[in-house]
Design goal:
By secondary structure, this protein is mainly α. Helices cover 68% and strands 0% of the residues. It is built from 11 helices and no strands. The model has no long low-confidence stretch (mean pLDDT 91).
């Protein structure tokens, strides 16, 4: 192969992408292990997660981060994922990815709280929304935009075109909240841990995983490609999502 400046540039970009992915996934694993190990030790757990976030983005406010992480712990208390890990591991993942992408306190907090409303019911949902609101009106707006429309709020596995139309309206109305990036961080966390998805709604575990991957192809990839065209992130999100789907 003839070595040209273009070849060198492409190889350098590929190396950088793989380095970014390695850093991201190493810290996702660290968050998972730390959350499982210290789940019953709230203060120590939050201190450790704050440290991981600040290593990714030193400009974040540690006091605000602690409050956001604690609210997430409260809103997911007693909940567990298919993997057996505490449910709060996922919003901790999403917030971390946004910190790694150098977003501000509000955007990271939206990541921490993004499913705090959907994952609760009845009176607990009301309390969850109030706690999220204590982090600021913009955080509550962001979480509301990311949540399913009210008629299907309790249907966790139901994804409709209306859900993404609602999200797109909120993205257009509040571009400063970076909800498209929050949603991509959500997809990345779920795709990274898809091997733990269990049989559900008559589907085998493998079918459940395939169904989620198809949802990512339909809904996530168009948003990810738009993000990549903007050039705002060093990481190329669409190729990474495609890689996660293929694993």
């Amino acid at each position: 192969m003839v070595i040209t400046e273009e070849n060198i540039g492409q190889m350098s970009a590929q190396t950088t992408q793989q380095e970014l992915i390695h850093t991201l996934e190493s810290n996702l694993d660290l968050i998972t292990d730390t959350t499982s190990l210290l789940y019953d030790e709230d203060e120590q757990l939050i201190e450790e997660i704050v440290g991981i976030y600040l290593n990714a983005n030193p400009l974040l406010d540690p006091k605000y981060l602690k409050k956001s992480l604690y609210v997430s712990l409260q809103n997911h208390e007693g909940q567990f994922r298919d993997s057996g890990h505490p449910a709060v591991t996922h919003p901790f993942h999403v917030g971390y990815i946004l910190a790694e992408w150098k977003f501000n306190n509000t955007v990271v907090a939206i990541g921490n709280q993004h499913d705090g409303v959907e994952d609760n019911k009845d009176e607990k949902r009301v309390y969850a929304a109030r706690r999220i609101g204590s982090l600021g009106h913009e955080v509550l707006i962001g979480v509301t935009g990311l949540s399913k429309p009210t008629p299907i709020l309790d249907r966790k596995d139901l994804v409709t075109e209306e859900t993404y139309q609602k999200l797109q309206r909120c993205i257009d109305d509040h571009p400063e909240l970076k909800l498209d990036y929050v949603k991509m961080a959500d997809f990345i966390s779920n795709l990274y841990t898809k091997e733990f998805m269990r049989p559900k709604n008559g589907l085998t575990a493998e079918q459940h995983q395939q169904q989620f991957c198809e949802k990512a192809r339909i809904y996530a990839l168009p948003i990810a490609r738009k993000i990549d065209r903007s050039g705002e992130l060093e990481m190329r999100v669409a190729p990474y999502i495609q890689e996660l789907i293929a694993r």
